[in-house]
């Protein structure tokens, strides 16, 4: 059986490593942020400890055979339930949250490693995960920018301009509109219009579209 100090060390290590990954997700304001990643990692570490040492008192019982990996194995499949909650289907061709779901799944593995006393494996995986989430992101955007979208938020006077008018003005400048969403604004008698379009649109085209929208009657502000 592990000493109390070793159990505490493993759980604290899991909390710290999970928190490191969670900080990166928290920075991007995802629902699964710092606390979620820490809880997943600590929970997985605890399950690993229980799986390894929680049934030691029955090992001497006749006809009792235990597989220490069975309880821990349920973490790998069970974490999918939590990961599914971070995935958002904005529309048919746009899905968000897959990276956060993957980070939760990986953090669960980090917790299992920490709970099993594999500190080097847990720490190395944490460093790699942070590098993948933070450092690879700019490279991915540069190489595959056509697969990403940008958003334009237009604050308009309620009832003074139609969504069709906004779409026509944007498309006349060369901006290919993917989706337009109307939301209520905190400002009285005004609405927020979210316009989504591909990142492949040239910067000059976007600036031209923003300038044209600002000139329309009923448009209060435009935010890119």
Compile the SSE list and pairings.
Elements: H1 4-27, H2 34-53, H3 69-84, E1 88-91, E2 94-96, H4 98-115, H5 119-143, E3 149-157, H6 163-172, E4 177-184, E5 190-198, H7 203-214, E6 219-223
Antiparallel strand pairs: 1-2, 3-5, 3-6, 4-5
Helix pairs in contact: 1-2, 1-4, 1-5, 2-3, 2-4, 3-4, 4-5, 6-7
**Given the helix and strand composition, which structural class is it?**
alpha+beta
How many distinct helices?
A: 7
* SSE arrangement, N to C: HHHEEHHEHEEHE
Mean pLDDT: 79
Residue fraction in strands? 15-25%
Number of strands: 6
Oligomer: single chain
Percent in helix: 55-70%
Unreliable segments of 5+ consecutive residues: none
Spatial order of the strands forming the largest sheet? 4-5-3-6
* Number of individual domains: 2
* Cα-to-Cα separation, first versus last residue: 58 Å
**Rg for CA atoms:** 25 Å
Give the CA-based shape. elongated
Give a quick account of the main beta sheet: strands, pairing sense, barrel closure.
4 strands, antiparallel
């Amino acid at each position: 059986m592990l000493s109390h100090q070793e159990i505490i060390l493993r759980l604290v290590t899991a909390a710290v490593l999970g928190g490191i990954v969670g900080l990166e997700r928290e920075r991007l304001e995802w629902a699964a942020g710092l606390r979620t990643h820490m809880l997943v990692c600590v929970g997985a570490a605890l399950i690993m400890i229980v799986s390894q040492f929680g049934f030691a008192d029955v090992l001497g019982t006749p006809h009792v055979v235990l597989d220490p990996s069975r309880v821990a194995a349920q973490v790998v499949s069970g974490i999918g339930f939590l990961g599914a909650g971070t995935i958002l289907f904005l529309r048919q061709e746009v899905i968000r949250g897959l990276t956060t779901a993957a980070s939760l799944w990986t953090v669960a593995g980090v917790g299992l490693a920490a709970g099993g006393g594999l500190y080097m494996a847990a720490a190395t995986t944490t460093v790699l995960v942070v590098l993948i989430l933070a450092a690879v992101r700019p490279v991915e955007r540069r190489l595959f920018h056509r697969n990403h979208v940008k958003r334009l938020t237009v604050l308009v006077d309620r009832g003074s301009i139609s969504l069709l008018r906004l779409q026509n003005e944007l498309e006349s400048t060369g901006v290919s509109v993917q989706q337009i969403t109307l939301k209520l604004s905190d400002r009285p008698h005004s609405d927020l219009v979210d316009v989504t379009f591909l990142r492949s649109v040239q910067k000059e085209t976007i600036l031209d579209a923003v300038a044209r929208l600002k000139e329309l009657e009923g448009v209060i502000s435009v935010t890119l």
